[in-house]
Amino acid sequence: QVHYAPSPDVAVETFEAYLDRPDVQRNDAIRYGLSVAYLEDRQYDKAVDILNDLLASNPGRITFQVTLAEVRLAQNHMDEARTILKDALARNPGNYPITHTLARTETADGNGDLESAQRQLRQAQEKPPAGAPQRQIVTERLAEITNRLHARANS
């Protein structure tokens, strides 16, 4: 619903109103939706609070971990995003969302570990079947990182 809202602030209002209704249980899906709405609306601290609460009761939930890392990435807390994702990847080797987000984190600020990102993306490239959109995304990202590594080596 966040992606289909006319704007992030409308998405926030929608989810907050939904949580305020007396006939609605405060379930994880609604709270997660609100955290994503907060992320899109750049209300990062509110998103972090919800995601930490969700992770307290669901510590292994990949969706919550990746989204928390995305919030930290948006806040330019690269080291924290890396730590979240590396810990998640250690528990879930080869997981596509974790791997892809970790590679994005490694390349976001220009100071990341491009070799690590390249290794992660090579592993992620093997997971989706040929022709899958995910594979195309990973292949394009891998080419970009490989080009950056070659440019770095030649400078």
Describe this structure in words.
By secondary structure, this protein is mainly α. It contains 8 helices and no strands. The protein has helices spanning 8-20, 28-40, 44-57, 62-74, 78-91, 96-108, 114-126, 133-153. Helix 4 runs parallel beside helix 6. The radius of gyration is 17 Å and the shape is elongated. The mean pLDDT is 87.
Tell me, briefly, the overall form.
elongated
What would the average pLDDT be, to the nearest integer?
A: 87
Number of helical stretches of at least 4 residues: 8
Largest β sheet strand count, sense and barrel closure: none
Entry summary:
The chain is an all-alpha fold. The protein has 8 helices and no strands.
Short key terms for the protein model shown above:
mainly alpha
Topology:
Layout: H1 8-20, H2 28-40, H3 44-57, H4 62-74, H5 78-91, H6 96-108, H7 114-126, H8 133-153
Helix pairs in contact: 1-2, 2-3, 3-4, 4-5, 4-6, 5-6, 6-7, 7-8
